[in-house]
Give the backbone structure.
Amino acid sequence: MAAPLNDERSLFTLVGELPDQISALVRAEIDQIKAELSYKAKHFGIGAGLVVVAGFVGIFLLGTLIATGILALSLVMPGWAAALIVSGVLLLIIAILVGIALANFRRGSEPLESIESVRQDIDAITGRGAYGSRD
């Protein structure tokens, strides 16, 4: 026997399918939230790792700046100029790493789309909001 079309199903059949539909919706929403949280955690982890690397390179920058000061005081112009150039390169590396880290932190801090979707589903079930007549 062929399955009835959607418009041929009785009210009792539709009401009987409602718990399964709600259960499937809740499972899908939970899966979506898990995926979004995983995405955010990944980008926060990348950002934190890059900040640690930038801090590590910053230690070398501090050593280079100290060497620059020592060499500048020792009156040999080419020595401190070279050390200052190395410091500038290290500073540039730190700036790039921190910029990439901040971009990852921004990606990770975007609001969850699934939360709003769950709120809309709850409003639809309770008859409130844009779905229902009561506000």
